[in-house]
Amino acid sequence: xxxxxxxxxxxxxxxxxxxxxxxxxxxxxxxxxxxxxxxxxxxxxxxxxxxxxxxxxxxxxxxxxxxxxxxxxxxxxxxxxxxxxxxxxxxxxxxxxxxxxxxxxxxxxxxxxxxxxxxxxxxxxxxxxxxxxxxxxxxxxxxxxxxxxxxxxxxxxxxxxxxxxxxxxxxxxxxxxxxxxxxxxxxxxxxxxxxxxxxxxxxxxxxxxxxxxxxxxxxxxxxxxxxxxxxxxxxxxxxxxxxxxxxxxxxxxxxxxxxxxxxxxxxxxxxxxxxxxxxxxxxxxxxxxxxxxxxxxxxxxxxxxxxxxxxxxxxxxxxxxxxxxxxxxxxxxxxxxxxxxxxxxxxxxxxxxxxxxxxxxxxxxxxxxxxxxxxxxxxxxxxxxxxxxxxxxxxxxxxxxxxxxxxxxxxxxxxxxxxxxxxxxxxxxxxxxxxxxxxxxxxxxxxxxxxxxxxxxxxxxxxxxxxxxxxxxxxxxxxxxxxxxxxxxxxxxxx
Length: 495
Known about the structure:
Distance between the termini: 62 Å
Shape: globular
CATH topology of the largest domain: Neutral Protease, domain 2
Mean pLDDT: 90
């Protein structure tokens, strides 16, 4: 409940307060912050952005905890911490528990504060600044190593871009476990990040989240504006961020050769199994907020396109340049523009490729992004000990529409083995002869009615090689030099 001194507050249906007061009156608002959950947050709650207020600890995210004046983000604010329970550790991107700190309303909104009896904090030097890391819960058992890895990740990314300095604050809250569920998430804050994870989450996956989100400091906001609707350019804002997450984790030494190969295989498997793999960009964008497969496709498509373009630039410049040079070119160009009207990403990206490597990518954007053509996997990442294997998948090649007892063939794919075997829209399916169902490696036989003619159709229901499931296979006798060569390419090392 809100109480006011010096004015009268009226609560609207939208949850905002309108306060009437005399001109230049001094206003005092008082309210209590209560726990936003019945108990400790669990995976069922998603990321706990509401206030967490427990008997022995708390976390407050600015916009869900503090009442602030509307449309006055640049106005000066002042926060005073006082009367904390004895022996509590307090950490924040505001003042880290010091008595008072001047800031802006925007800084208050973007704040992240945590405290409690069992909160542990760690401080590490990072590139041009200091990392403060606060952790609560079961993640404390590996917090020292986690802080070290965070230091390497943030320093690697700051070195890559070369334009960030100052402190950075990360909190990690352990989400109460639920059987059979893993949860990882977080939100970027002003010069910091609030991270949440169940303890059964893999360390590598948690570090991927923080590395990905920290890269959004630059991608896309400091490289180019996304045209409306923004979802049609998420292949860049999210997909390229995925690529540079892998690159900077490898650069930092946080991801080993095995970690990198596992991540590549995970992304290949997810991409190749997606129902949106062959969907054009317009359809992916339209469905982005509706299905998980559509939501993930820009991340995957953009990742493999960045991987492909990185290899193209190496080939065009005799390995003197790579995608990093394009990204820094975009950064420098955007820094010189009016950030309100700034350059649009796509034409800037096309221009940067021409300037850096003399490559025209307009055809690639049309083919690989807009029309979902298969993106080539870089051959220079492969060698006799590292092989990309493709397993074609089962594809019947048509659908059935039922009208009473009739089974009518429709949506026959013209590039499928079924079409080449003579299956056409409008034919009737009479029966399928016994065979091993869903096995693309055996001949399937269907009895169909084509007009008045009854016929047997035989074909192997196998997708084309370009649409199979891919996996990187590593030879058991692979030598360290072969591993190092791959890590060098993934990390963008041009020395």
